[in-house]
Design brief:
three-stranded antiparallel β-sheet, single chain, 3 strands
Length: 63
C-alpha cells in the first residue's frame, strides 16, 4: 500500500506554517523539503515531513 500524499494545505497545517511559506520554500529552495509534482499539483509524503522535522530538531546540547 502506498503512503497517503498530503496536499499543500494539509502539509502546511501539519508543519504549522502557511501555504505561502511552503510555496516560497519550494521556489527558493530555502530548505530541502521533498515534494512531488503531479501535473500542476504539489504533494508531500507524511514520512518526508516527519524526516525533515527530525533533521531540524535541536537537542539542548546543540544550542
Amino acid at each position: 500500500m502506498t503512503e497517503k500524499l498530503l496536499n499543500t494545505s494539509e502539509a502546511s497545517q501539519y508543519l504549522g506554517v502557511t501555504r505561502d511559506t511552503l510555496a516560497v520554500w519550494r521556489t527558493t529552495r530555502r530548505y530541502e523539503l521533498p515534494y512531488i509534482k503531479v501535473g500542476r499539483l504539489v504533494k508531500y509524503r507524511l514520512s518526508d515531513l516527519d524526516k525533515w522535522l527530525n533533521q531540524r530538531t535541536k537537542e539542548k546540547s546543540d544550542e
